[in-house]
Write a structure and sequence with these properties.
The complex is a heterodimer of chains A (114) and B (113).
Chain A: E1 5-7, E2 10-13, E3 19-24, E4 31-37, E5 44-50, E6 65-69, E7 75-79, E8 88-95, E9 104-105, E10 109-113
Chain B: E1 4-7, E2 10-14, E3 19-25, E4 32-38, E5 45-51, E6 56-59, E7 62-67, E8 72-77, E9 86-92, E10 102-103, E11 107-112
Parallel strand pairs in B: 2-11
Antiparallel strand pairs in B: 1-3, 3-8, 4-5, 4-9, 6-7, 7-8, 9-10, 9-11
Classes of the chains: A mainly beta (114), B mainly beta (113).
Chain lengths: 114, 113
Amino acid sequence: GAGVSQSPSNKVTEKGKDVELRCDPISGHTALYWYRQSLGQGLEFLIYFQGNSAPDKSGLPSDRFSAERTGGSVSTLTIQRTQQEDSAVYLCASSITTGGTEAFFGQGTRLTVV
Amino acid sequence: GENVEQHPSTLSVQEGDSAVIKCTYSDSASNYFPWYKQELGKRPQLIIDIRSNVGEKKDQRIAVTLNKTAKHFSLHITETQPEDSAVYFCAAIVDTGRRALTFGSGTRLQVQP
């Protein structure tokens, strides 16, 4: 595809349920990032994958959050036992390599926990 | 780790005026500084970036300046237009490090026609 693709676009879930959010990065991009954006707020770093290296998980807010990237391409962000404070837009981005190159964002997944 | 502070949080200007948004960063090793624009309900998109080996970069009505000594950088938009209305985010990163971009908290710019 031409850009970073995320699915679903919107997700409404009940408190306590698990959710999986998917990100398809731009083909050939080795770096993949997950950010969280609460309503009217900035971009909160969650996790970062670079090639085959161990991911940087330093931004994950709790052990209910996890992510994996299979085959160096598609990534899945999983939130277990969702809480209302998890409601936010989850943005995925990819860049051709680490650090100082343009990061392209997906359109985001709007998660609402009711 | 890196910490990026951005201000103001909101900025309202008249069409045709200039707008300036400022950011400071904490990690003196940071050497790549992009600016992203996010229109309402849309994804952030890169509008301009600068590396630490230059002090200023310009692209039509948009310019970014960098002061490495003071560890701050600024976005300048001249001759503002209503379509410039959006939220702008600055970011910083050490481009040789295995790190993700650290973003500022954003500035909501409103250009009044």
